[in-house]
Description:
Radius of gyration: 15 Å
InterPro entries: Rossmann-like_a/b/a_fold (IPR014729), UspA (IPR006016)
Order of helices and strands: EHEHEHEHE
Pfam families: Usp (PF00582)
Helix content: 40-55%
CATH class: Alpha Beta
Largest sheet: 5 strands, parallel
Protein name: Nucleotide-binding universal stress UspA family protein
Number of domains: 1
CATH topology: Rossmann fold
Structural class: alpha/beta
Organism: Paractinoplanes abujensis
Domain UspA: 4-128
Low-confidence stretches: none
Number of strands: 5
Amino acid sequence: MSKRVIVAATDGMPCGSAAVEWAARQAQRSGCALRIVHAYEWDWYGTRYAEVARVLAAAVADDAYARARLLAPETDIWTDTLIGPLLPRLLEGARFAEMLVVGHGRQGPSSVGREVVSNAPCPVVVVRNERRPQPVA
């Protein structure tokens, strides 16, 4: 029997980090493994910047891994950086998942968010970024 897996999507923004943190805690509680997915498109500018895009994507995945590891030290965690359009990559990444966890940082639902919730092959958890800047004075 294969291990149950929670998939967390991140873009490196605060809402993506909140999704990874929530997913790490849930994976720890439920005994699931955690797969952190970061999808990116590098071909907007041709192959000239492909290596830069790969390095930046790896940095996003590495940061997400470090955050998750701190919160779920006993959990099996790995990252995948997927090249291509966000929506198809997320849906593909969640194909065998127990659940897909995504962040929500805007006032209203994004078109990608609606498409993920409507088309995901598993339950979807949308995590709001509740971190708000604290007043300085």
